[in-house]
Amino acid sequence: MLQNNKKGVYWIGTYMPISGLSINAYLIIDDMPTLINAGAPITVDKLIKKLETIIEPKELQYIVLNQADISYAGGLKTLTTLAPQSRIVTSKYESYRLGLYELLIQPLIIQDEDTLNIGNNTLYFYSAPFVGSPDAVYVYTDLDGILFSGEAFSTTVLGWETVNAHDLTELVEAYYDIYIGDSEIARNSIVRLKELDIRLIAPGHGPVLKNYVHKYIDALGKGFAFTLE
Length: 229
Prior knowledge:
This protein is α/β, with parallel strands linked by helices. The chain has 7 helices and 15 strands.
């Protein structure tokens, strides 16, 4: 659970100890309650149970997606049956992929540097091309200084704590190297994050990263060099 203001930001994801992987989702309680990501088909029931301990699903106004891969959008069909009033928010390309989940809906399409006010919080959207998906986005709220980063800064960990204050640079680099790789376009989108006042990084997988924020950005922004022999 994250609570940086009186209304609160909550982790309502699922950690799977056998694999060390978590499927993260975050609930922002504000005038217009907003869910960041919808989990996977295998985790959506747990997500809904956690959601219902905080608000009624019918109160949910927005479901914002970093991207439309199965661990981010796979729970949408189940979730939207309980929250039909909620509006899905994502980028244009990712919206096309929602048909994979048998969703015939018109999302709110956002572009780079668009904003969405949900009350005390304003969400800022920044393009994250090829950070796990061709048209992925970062989501940032300046009130809390939280970056919802999707695949960037994700990790797998043995032993769970929702917020991790230790230096996990090696794990963050290893995950990035495996799942994103040496993409100049992705790397440039990460370097751009230095302009933001980020106090917490809330990734798609792994614990929320409390400290060493600039070290993580520098590490992933430097890229990965290949030597041909």
